[in-house]
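Let us practice reading a record.
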Amino acid sequence: MTETEKKEGIKSTSTQSVEQQTRKASINFIVKDKSFEKFAMMMILGTTGDAMDTKMNFFFTFWGLNLLKKNFKPKVAGMPAPMKGMAANMFKKRMKKFGIEDPWAMIKDAVDSGNMKLYPCQMTMDLMGIKREDLLDWVEDPVGAASFLEMSNGGQIVSL
């Protein structure tokens, strides 16, 4: 209880410290782009959050949903069309120099630990004719926007 609460006779309703409350809060990301840059952001943020034992929820909607499709290869958005795939391969080679051999394996490890969850948007799947079997086997079942916002309640939401 703070000094102000004591002076004003206010009772504290929380039995947990701010640190405990913060630790339980999740960070929730909306992924709406299929580019290699967004993929790399998701991979770095998700695996770092996992290493810090932070709950991370990623909601994939519109073009971002493509990142969850089996065998999808993201391309660098900021390059001329013929060079987009080549630039992504260049980034992958650079990532290997930093010890990132297989980004998808790192993401799967974070998912397996339970700290990183990947949620496909049900409405986007319906609109684009994407079936559950088109997605990676280890992503969560699809949810709607309302479900994602409900699970994000009390946490931060960041748009990628």
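A brief commentary: The radius of gyration is 19 Å.
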